[in-house]
Amino acid sequence: MHDRPAMTDDQQEKGAASSPAGRVARLRHLLRPRSIAVIGASDRDGSFGKRLLSAIRSGRYAGTVYPVNPRYEQLDGLTCYPSLDALPEVPDLAAFAVADQQAPSLLEEAAEIGIPAAALFGRGYAPPGEMSSTQRLSAIARTAGMAVCGNNCMGFVNIVDGLKISGNPPPIPDHPGTIGLISHSGSTWSGLVGNQRQLVFNYAISAGQEIATTMADYLEFLLDQPETRVIGCIMETVRDPEGFIAAAERADVRGIPIIALKLGRSEQGRQFALAHSGALSGSDAVYGAVLERHNIVRVRTVDEFVNTLELFSTPRRPSAAGIGIVTDSGGERELIVDIASDVGAPFAKVRPETEQRLAQVLDPGMSPLNPVDSYGDGRTLLEDCLRVLADDPEVGIVALATNLVAGRAYADEAARAISEAAAATAKPALLFGHVESAMSHKHAADLRAKGIPVLLGTASALSAMTHLITWHQRKDPATRGVAKPTADLPSREEISALIAADGPGALSARTAAQLMDRCHLPRAASRFVETRENAVAAAEDLGFPVVMKTANPAILHKTEHGGVLLNIASSSAAAEAYDQIRQRCGPLVEIQKQIAGGTELILGMTYDPQFGPAVTLGLGGILTELLSDAVTFLPPVTPDGARQFLERLKGYPLLTGFRGSPPADLAALCELIARFSTFCASYGALFSEIDLNPIKAGPDGAVAVDALFIPSQGSQAERAVA
Question: In terms of domains, do 54 and 72 share one?
Fold first, then answer.
């Protein structure tokens, strides 16, 4: 029945569909289909088959629709076909309105006749121990190279073509916007698509379980669409880390921001994610590091997500790193300042001439400082104050903070003021309100029609403005401290051989020291000895005081076994200390120069199964657990990048001469962190965990005092063979 040319472009494309590029190329069949088969279409009231067919037919979609159901000859004025094989052509997309148990055989039939894309909505659940239909569907789709939306999803809307592939879609606008949306949460997808704040998408995709097509593929598609100005992702997990990072890097180069709301941050949230979609949410710290590395804006709530999308969807970009705000309330001015302190919003420090101009505008005795309270003796001076702030070179974003209360003439005045101010500047100009329920929908819609964002809620509005400024500041990877590969390290083969030559388990202290020396990782000077006489000689050579530690590779927690002795200040004390440790832990001992003073830090690496090595830097000693004062980032970083991460620590002042203590040699510390990050980027896959703990940072430099290297299972296997 099917009209198939001898060798179509689609068939050539199918041959490469298993590659990432091939999968992305076939997304046009899924998201912009020329023809659609609705399998399980129905006219039974309330049925999913009827709702799906009605949704497809209700919009501007101009393609061909083929209902498929052997029970009907006609549906909704269309010829209904008994099977896929009876269709007059191979459709681009098969949309499945069938029970879970029927889906695998029908998808297999669709794959056999060459349908390149499918939308699957069912859960695909199976009792424990049984193969779920989800697994079978995934195998069929991946083997055939099909692009698949779902399963367990709400479908998608393509507002460019007026197409709704969903059983219960919200109404959609009759024109596309500039925002692409990909969501792992179906209910949030529905709420966002049906929003009442003029937030318009070009494509909004409920991705579901991503059995064949992932968020990475959707990102690549959206990046190619001419309407896309910003992309929002609500994510439980990343199923294709390599593809996701490649798409993020491409977005960064193209200047298209990605806004991400990561679900499952908490331990309980991760458990729900596993129950919800089988997603391995992964370490939240690692996800944060990945997003930051690739200049992806991370938000924490749906309100912040929506405000940030709205602000980023406007074409204006800040020319400076400061926010200028005009408000009409002294109390709300205080609220703005309080919340700005919480979220780190950067207020512009306006220039003296700006303060002078503001003083001339404001009523006598009013403060000409940013944020500006413009409400004086029964009058407001909104527009004048906004224009003055917009003229200041230190102001990158100008905002009017008012509640825009519906039914008040004052709302007209406020809307007019921000409209005139926006028309007079090229900078982003917006309005935000504190009491969301009071905001006039009509005034907000009118302002948005002029390209003026109207943000709802103080905290999320200030966060959105901060995100816009930060994203622009970090567009150049150099500003993120991203380092380039270095050639001054040993080959991977050399390091693998060093690991393989060691015993089982964690690397011995002697091998760890060799590894650090070979890779130029600064450590406290030490000697390894196996006799009393050599211990005394080593201590004398290093210079007292020294530390003595067992180097028995079978003992990881040295202190618990009495294997560490401090403040050894003489030759006789060294001899006595060696005898004690030899008796408790064995003859192999490390004699180490004792580092006096300084601040303790911890520097570690874990190898994430999705994203590879991730480095954690924190305050050491008891502060590590007491304050949870740590930051995680992806390696490698430059010394400048290391400094940026150091400055985020709550305990950073301890390194800069807190209360008269000598400041640490920050240049040496940053160089150590950078070198360690380069080590992790080069050899991270050889280890499951690494700890340099503690690192002592003082005025004379920074060195690792102790180190733990735990090889990965692959490295362990190599050692076993060796």
Answer: yes
